[in-house]
Fold DUF4346 domain-containing protein.
Amino acid sequence: MDLMVKDLAQIDRKLSQRHIDLDPSGYFIIYLDREVGLIYAKHFTNVIDERGLAVDPETGKVIPAKGKVERTHTTVFSGRTAKELCVKIFEETQPCVVTQLDHAAYLGREFVRAEVALVTGQEYVQD
């Protein structure tokens, strides 16, 4: 069983390193608030430049993938479960703030990971 878990973790690590096209409608920062038992997803807008990089629409500067960035979010979604967040974002928000299927799939996976971390007390770090 341990070998299978290690194999699965290795597959996930490898896939996390692949290139993905960024969603032109923006990105999310996902975090937990354990005191109130909620998963939060802050949505930020961006523009994708000719190089495929996310750019702040206000400043025109590239948004770094790592490190702290001071930007103002457009919307904050919250829910107790991954399903609740997905319903709020993909079914109740019109127009939907996610425009690419791979981005929607990624968010669903991340929300499940966040929910598991919330329930089990494990640390959650967005992939």
Remarks:
- Residues 101-120 form the longest helix (20 residues).
- The CA atoms of residues 30 and 41 lie 4 Å apart.
- The helical segments are 2-16, 82-91, 101-120.
